[in-house]
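Table S2 (text version). Query chain:
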Amino acid sequence: MKKLIVVTFSKALTFHNLINIFSRVALNSEHTIIAVIDCSFLRKSGKKTDGKAYFYNGVAGKSEQGLEISVISIVEIETRLSYSLSVQQTPSRPQIKPVKKKPKNQNNNRSKKSRKNLDSQSSKPDITRVDDYAQHLKNTRYFFPTSVRPNGR
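Corresponding structure-token output:
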């Protein structure tokens, strides 16, 4: 049975200190503890909803218009308990439109190499959603319990 610890706020309590207290009280150090990340789709209508875009909805099995959040959690494997540590809304990205091929006579004044560079630049976004997830994970890793970090770092 876990003991209840009462925390008084006579001093500033940082999020990092709160996580350390939580780790000592709620998690069993003898169990396997991992960090996981997963995304959740939120159906959303409205024309002025910030961040609304097409995201994959696993329930529907296709992309739909709405919002998406990525959730990073600490999971205790043996008890199958999960504790959410950080939630972040996935930013919407401009839709990538397929590059339309121009008739050959319109591209004659450019070399093949410059046409290829223009086509590849217009079809790739600067930052992908996977980059957003990786950045979320990178920003949150400092709050993981020491047993989750590689080599306790």
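Notes on Table S2: The beta strands are 33-43, 53-57, 62-76, 81-89. The two ends are 30 Å apart (CA to CA).
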